[in-house]
Description:
The protein folds into two domains: 10-97, Methyltransferase, Methionine Synthase (B12-binding Domains), Chain A, domain 1 (Orthogonal Bundle); 104-231, 3-Layer(aba) Sandwich (Rossmann fold). Helices cover 56% and strands 11% of the residues. The chain is built from nine helices and five strands.
Amino acid sequence: MSEEDDIILSELDDxxxxxxxxDDLYDxxxxxxxxxxxxxxxxxxxxxxxxxxxxxxxxxxxxxxxRDGILFVPEVLLAANAMKGGMAILKPLLAETxxxxxxxxxIGTVKGxxxxxxxxxxxxxxxxxxxxxxxxGINNAVEAYLEALDSEKPDILGMSALLTTTMxxxxxxxxxxxxxGIRDDYVVLVGGAPLNEEFGRAIGADAYCRDAAxxxxxxxxxxxxxxxxxxx
Length: 232
Ligand code: B1M
């Protein structure tokens, strides 16, 4: 590589750096993403801004080209890996807000679905807001949710699905909770790119959460309602 081609990330201004990070995420360059994240943090960016304005925004571009057949699974996996590298740096920073304990959530991606970046982001943001989070990972059958609800006794059950073919499984889980007479023991929050509010209502969830920030606000809202009910 010639000298002109070498981009020194720290010499770019914020806007150029974010643009470069989007390109690097697209190209699956994990080390460059980690370096970019650290530079933005050193420049005083909040972890949340780095996450949303650089990483999530970059992943959206990857998503469009994946949809349009310009990128394929191996490239998208590399991009996801680079994104996770950046998220690993931000995770402790998002979690160290010293927020008071808000409640407990069990969260997992549903059966047949291996997408976990959005779920991980929700977990991170919830932890940052003071929630204890038990993350069940990906590809969870109803039994896995039931077992965790029983052993962890959370306030909230969170489910994530990124595929139109896997999102109906959320209803399987909720219907099973109903059959067992335990549906109302939990606040059920659902999220994932193909969902919407109407779907959330139709399957009997308490709320659909558009993104991680909405998930935190919704969870806080339900917790304070529960708290008021208990005191009222
Ligand atoms: Co997949 N994939 N993928 N993929 N992938 C999508 C989802 C897709 C929309 C791409 C496209 O065509 N445009 C498409 C789904 C189409 C559809 O169903 N309508 C798709 C497909 C088709 C597939 C495969 C079938 C491809 C194939 O094999 N032919 C395959 C399926 C595998 C499986 O699950 N069985 C597949 C595989 C993969 C990879 C493994 C390569 C990789 C996943 C890596 C990983 O997660 N570790 C991957 C990726 C990365 C994507 C895209 C590009 C990005 C997803 C992502 O991480 N977004 C995605 C395109 C897209 O969504 N634009 C795509 C960033 C993340 C921060 O956003 O996940 O939406 P998101 O999460 C948000 C909100 O949705 C919300 O908050 C998050 C943060 O703000 N949220 C919640 C999410 N979960 C929540 C839970 C809550 C609350 C809020 O609970 C309370």
